[in-house]
């Protein structure tokens, strides 16, 4: 790593008081509007001359690729899938938030802003969240214009439902497949641009490194997953829209291929990593059924609109659910959080489930499960109404568990689902490497320490459709990047490093499979850096992870063949990066000696076991700089100032 | 993580699997034993177990595509005993669980077979022809920023629901693999219908159907002869109704959408 380069480029964001997010001045509701005017433009005739590389084709990546292509830039989009339509955004079930106030129930941009900052336990940047709430309105318009078949009422107007952490109905949905329909909308917009020749889609191409020239992001190096060819792609700006890293837990609701490689390699080239320990454990997933389990399946949070969560009052009660009378059931969410009930935010609901299972009141094999019961809703609304709302989710539950959720209560348990952490970005979504933009789940995002349901789709699309097209233009117009092509020595050097690490993986020729290392890492992370964390456990994990990593490089078995499809080689590179990232997550979790949102430190809780923040010491974004030594990253702080919202202890009671 | 399964509940199966190193080398069937299979495993988890064993013996694992393992991304899919995604209706292979099979079963596993889907390796095929059909017109031209308020145009619920039924397609390719003609008509019809059913899709409807159908033919997919295997194999149970609907639209487009300079009317579809 060229440390001189690191010093030069970070200087732009580092100021006396810590990291500068470059938030524009002015009242919060005028910041974005004014900033849009202040930003420079690239004239239509000149756009073709600039190449923008977009890595990832999920909601954020596809939205950015389509929008920048429409503007006339020369866009290249990369995906390791066979088609951009496969990205993990497709799995999002429940919906997308927007402050439309179509329900006349008191919603507003300010309320969505407030709910999101509060839901994130006051660890998000106010200006970004406000902009997100503002843009939420345009997203719905855009998607409807593209033909996204949102649910409608008989009058032909759009339907809404409620989600966790909100007392208004602002969630737009397309049955239980909202992510799929939004992604197909963005995918179709991208394919339209491919047809028009403004976007070149590179499928089955995995980004393995970032090329930095004179301190700026100037290209990427990819591996062709079919031929193994290592290829350099120069560009004037690079966008990473490569999703989150919840697969560091091995068992998560993320798709199997979801990985941290692109952002991790960019981190090692100088991009700071923001709040890596902010991971979200989703309360409603199908419990683990055995050691063979390869991933966990989410049951949309929207089910909590009609399902009631309960466990038996007595521990060790093994009676079937229908034989447990109502007065011997503990509807613990309704009991503990009467005003939000079953719609308490995700972090709180997850911890509450863990608590009752730790008390021995869990249900199902192994006792790690709670009931999600639709009996009352079916009695009230009829099975048909429930079927209409959630049919595909009940089908999926039955396929996986062999049980009919209409007849017996579903069993659910929390699982790793989403990460609020990611590469640190300023207000323009630019990382600490000029020219490197990060969008969607891959950036440290607008969700603070906990994301509310139906907000991930909103953020990915806001970043891609409505923010990057402006901020990238501004960057290009200000910097006017000179031409760089692959003959530049920086490309040769990075290509050699990439080939070197592939050869290193193939040369270990050890005895253990890649998967076995990934499972072991996941177990360490889940046990010591999962739903509840403490000093001793984190220190234990920080000993175990480097040991496991050392063993990986001595004993992993990756079968020969770089020149063809080699899925164990693909996974090996991703797991090698998780083995490094896992350590940073634990370092961050250890340093943050407060509880906030999804980060629950057992040492920091209120008398009744709720997360206790420490605003005196920790009201900042932790942005970690890679120093060349994994165990000793540099900590930089972006102080968080709350000018419009008052820092309060969250209460959903 | 304790399944607490007795050994007796575990199954053993024999798999005949199509192995093909790459597009240029001829493939062949190889037989493997799948042991210690729990009925709670998904079909892909069963293959994971087989692959871990193969790697243990320094043999190349079976390559197959998969990602979400929730039946929505459309990555996975192959033939099990000649049936796309296996026998269970409305289910992708990732959601097919081993409790649907019996101890001692012998299964043949092979990739989608279609001229338009060349094999890349083992069970992986190239489905990029689907993307090119979409490029030809499977969209509504709505550049970012140009949209009116979402509630400005009313959409009858029945239309929105029907559009959704068509839009549920996951692009897995099972319809092509199941079709004796290797036709992509259900895939194409689903997208044409989804967009044609919405008011926003009206301005482009005639061009859309003509261009998408022409591209489908160009990509070497076969013709539709109304057999219906596609609907039976579709994990999202997309109805043949949409094919009829598309064909109606195509005829209408041939008269109403055509103008001088558009090129010949394409009535003789598929007659290569």
Task: Give an overview of the whole structure.
The complex is a heterodimer of chains A (about 650) and B (about 270). Chain A has 18 helices and 23 strands. Chain A has about 650 residues and is of the alpha+beta class. Among the domains of chain A are: about 280-415, Alpha-Beta Complex (Flavocytochrome C3, Chain A, domain 1), CATH 3.90.700.10; about 490-615, Up-down Bundle (Methane Monooxygenase Hydroxylase, Chain G, domain 1). Chain A has a five-stranded parallel β-sheet. In chain A, helix 6 (about 125-145) crosses helix 13. The longest helix of chain A has 25 residues, at about 565-590. Chain A is globular. The model of chain A is unreliable at about 1-10 (pLDDT under 50). Chain B is an alpha+beta fold. Chain B folds into two domains: about 5-120, Beta-grasp domain (Ubiquitin-like (UB roll)); about 130-255, Alpha-helical ferredoxin (Fumarate Reductase Iron-sulfur Protein, Chain B, domain 2, Orthogonal Bundle). Helix content of chain B is about 30%, strand content about 10%. Chain B has helices at about 45-55, 130-135, 155-165, 175-180, 185-195, 205-220, 230-235, 240-255, and strands at about 10-20, 30-35, 80, 85, 105-110, 120, 125. In chain B, a hairpin with a 2-residue loop joins strand 6 (about 120) and strand 7 (about 125). In chain B, helix 3 runs antiparallel to helix 5, helix 5 packs across helix 8 (about 240-255) and helix 6 packs across helix 8 (about 240-255). Chain B is elongated, with a radius of gyration of 21 Å. In chain B, about 50% of the residues are buried. The chains are: A alpha+beta (about 650), B alpha+beta (about 270). Chains A and B meet through helix 4, helix 6, helix 7, helix 12 and helix 13 of A and helix 1, helix 2 and helix 3 of B.
């Amino acid at each position: 790593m060229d440390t001189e380069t690191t010093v030069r480029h970070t200087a732009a964001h580092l100021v006396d008081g810590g990291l500068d997010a470059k938030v524009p001045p002015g009242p919060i509701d005028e910041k974005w509007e004014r900033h849009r005017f202040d930003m420079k433009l690239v004239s239509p005739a000149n756009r073709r001359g600039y190449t923008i590389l977009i890595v990832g084709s999920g909601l954020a990546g596809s939205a950015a690729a389509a929008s920048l292509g429409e503007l006339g830039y020369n866009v290249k989009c990369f995906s390791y899938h066979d088609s951009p339509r496969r990205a993990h955004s497709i799995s999002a079930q429940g919906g997308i938030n927007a402050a439309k106030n179509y329900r006349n129930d008191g919603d507003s941009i300010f309320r969505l802003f407030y709910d999101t900052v509060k839901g994130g336990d006051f660890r998000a940047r106010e200006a970004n969240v406000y902009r997100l709430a503002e843009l939420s309105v345009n997203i719905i318009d855009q998607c409807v214009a593209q033909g996204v078949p949102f649910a409608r009422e008989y009058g032909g107007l759009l339907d809404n439902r409620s989600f966790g952490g909100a007392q208004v109905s602002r969630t737009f949905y397309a049955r239980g497949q909202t992510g799929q329909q939004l992604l197909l909308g963005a995918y179709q917009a991208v394919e339209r641009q491919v047809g028009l020749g403004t976007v070149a889609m590179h499928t089955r191409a995995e980004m393995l490194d970032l090329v930095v020239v004179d301190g700026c992001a100037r290209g990427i190096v990819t591996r062709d997953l079919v031929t193994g060819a290592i290829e350099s792609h120069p560009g004037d700006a690079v966008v990473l829209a490569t999703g989150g890293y919840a697969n560091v837990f091995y068992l998560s609701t993320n798709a199997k291929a979801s990985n941290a490689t692109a952002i991790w390699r960019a981190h090692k080239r100088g991009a700071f990593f923001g709040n890596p320990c902010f991971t979200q454990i989703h309360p409603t997933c199908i419990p683990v059924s055995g050691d063979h389990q390869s991933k966990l399946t989410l049951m949309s949070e929207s089910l909590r609109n009609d399902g009631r969560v309960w466990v038996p009052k007595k521990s060790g009660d093994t009676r079937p659910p229908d034989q447990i009378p109502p007065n011997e059931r503990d509807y613990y969410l309704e009991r503990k959080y009467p005003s939000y009930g079953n719609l308490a935010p995700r972090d709180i609901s997850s911890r509450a489930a863990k608590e009752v299972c730790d008390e021995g009141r869990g249900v199902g094999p192994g006792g790690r499960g709670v009931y999600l019961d639709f009996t009352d809703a079916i009695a009230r609304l009829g099975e048909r109404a429930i079927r209409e709302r959630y049919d595909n989710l009940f089908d999926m539950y039955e396929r996986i568990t062999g049980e009919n959720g209409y007849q017996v209560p579903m069993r659910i348990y929390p699982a790793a689902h989403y990460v609020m952490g990611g590469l640190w970005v300023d207000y323009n979504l630019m990382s600490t490497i000029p020219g490197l933009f990060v969008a969607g789940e891959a950036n440290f995002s607008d969700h603070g320490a906990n994301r509310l349901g139906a907000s991930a789709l909103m953020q990915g699309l806001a970043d891609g459709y409505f923010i990057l097209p402006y901020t990238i233009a501004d960057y290009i117009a200000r910097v006017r990047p000179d031409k760089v092509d692959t003959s530049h020595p920086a490309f040769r050097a990075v290509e050699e490093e990439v080939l070197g690490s592939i050869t290193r993986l193939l040369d270990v020729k050890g005895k253990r499979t890649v998967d076995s290392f990934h499972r072991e890492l996941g177990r360490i992370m889940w046990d010591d850096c999962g739903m509840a964390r403490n000093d001793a456990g984190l220190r234990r994990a920080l000993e175990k992870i480097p040991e496991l990593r050392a063993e990986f490089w001595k004993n992993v078995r990756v079968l020969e063949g770089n020149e063809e499809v080699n899925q164990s080689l693909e996974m090996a590179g991703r797991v090698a990066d998780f083995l490094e990232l896992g350590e940073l997550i634990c370092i961050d979790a250890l340093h943050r000696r407060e509880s906030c949102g999804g980060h629950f430190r057992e040492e920091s809780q209120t008398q009744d076991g709720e997360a206790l923040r420490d605003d005196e010491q920790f009201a900042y974004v932790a942005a970690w700089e890679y120093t060349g030594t994994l165990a000793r990253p540099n900590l930089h702080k972006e102080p968080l100032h709350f000018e419009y919202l008052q820092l309060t202890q969250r209460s959903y009671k | 993580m304790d399944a607490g399964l007795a050994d007796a509940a575990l199954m053993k199966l024999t798999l005949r699997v199509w192995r093909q190193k790459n597009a240029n080398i001829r493939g062949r069937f190889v037989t493997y034993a799948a042991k210690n299979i729990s009925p709670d495993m998904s079909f892909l988890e069963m293959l994971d177990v087989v692959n871990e064993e193969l790697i243990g013996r320094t043999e190349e694992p079976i390559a197959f595509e998969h990602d979400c393992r929730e039946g929505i991304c459309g990555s996975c899919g192959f033939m099990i005993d000649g049936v796309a995604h296996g026998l269970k209706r409305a289910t992708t292979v990732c959601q097919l669980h081993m409790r649907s099979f019996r101890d001692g079963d012998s299964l043949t596993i092979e990739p989608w077979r279609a001229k338009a889907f060349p094999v890349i390796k083992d069970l992986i095929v190239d489905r990029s022809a689907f993307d090119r059909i979409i490029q030809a017109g499977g969209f509504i031209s709505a550049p970012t920023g140009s949209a009116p308020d979402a509630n400005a145009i009313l959409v009858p619920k029945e239309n929105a629901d029907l559009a959704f039924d068509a839009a549920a397609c996951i692009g897995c390719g099972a319809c092509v693999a199941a079709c004796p003609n290797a036709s992509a008509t259900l895939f194409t019809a689903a997208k044409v219908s989804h967009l044609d059913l919405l008011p926003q899709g009206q301005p482009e409807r005639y061009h859309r159907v003509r261009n998408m159908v022409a591209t489908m033919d160009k990509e070497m997919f076969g013709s539709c002869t109304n057999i219906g295997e596609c609907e039976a194999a579709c994990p999202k149970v997309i109805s043949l109704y949409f094919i009829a609907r598309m064909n109606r639209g195509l005829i209408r487009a041939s008269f109403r959408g055509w103008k001088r300079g558009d090129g010949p009317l394409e009535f003789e579809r598929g007659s290569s």
